[in-house]
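Bench log. Compound arrived from synthesis this morning; before running ITC I wanted a structural hypothesis for how guanosine-5'-monophosphate sits in the protein. Inputs:
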Amino acid sequence: MRTLQNRVKEDGIVIDEKILKVDSFLNHQIDAKLMYEVGQAIVDHFKEKKITKVLTIEASGIAPAIMASLHLDVPCLFAKKAKPSTMTNEFYHTDIHSFTKNTTSTVVISKQFLDEDDHVLIIDDFLANGEASLGLHRLVRSANATTTGVGIVIEKSFQPGREKLQSEGLDVLSLCQVASLAGNKVKLVDE
Ligand code: 5GP
């Protein structure tokens, strides 16, 4: 997706050889129009497939996920990183290791919102080692629901996330593939 790729090149800040900061349009301040287009591009890729729900993880996956759900006209569900006291009914849970924070947290979704009839499109802001997306896929499987595919805004192709998701048989789409962050420079796969 050219507009996204240009934005990543122009506004992405390389923190180190593995971490890219995109706080100006995705992870802190959100460019809603760009996210609207991101949602459309993800939906275009999966349009032949059955999707009843979009699933992401709080917080940064929510913007692209909600835009995809808007285009699909299906609900957007996000996994919570801590079980809130208001969530009194039963919930599915799994542990996810955070690449950026180097911590593991138990994420939850209420059983009320996912069941065996659901066909789920997983969406996240970044794909690195695949832990977040694989964790969301485990939640889908806990509900005996089906993962239709995984839509990613920015994939760091030098990390093994894609291979791990594909080895689970998942269809992975990413809209911007970063080949390297070496030398303080964002290098995309197709440049
Ligand atoms: P994974 O679970 O695939 O290892 O990492 C994906 C998750 O970690 C995403 O949900 C994202 O929030 C975070 N993440 C991974 N790499 C980066 C990065 O380079 N920049 C930012 N801002 N977040 C990242």
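What the model suggests: The chain has a mean pLDDT of 96. Residues 32-45 form the longest helix (14 residues).
ITC booked for Thursday regardless.
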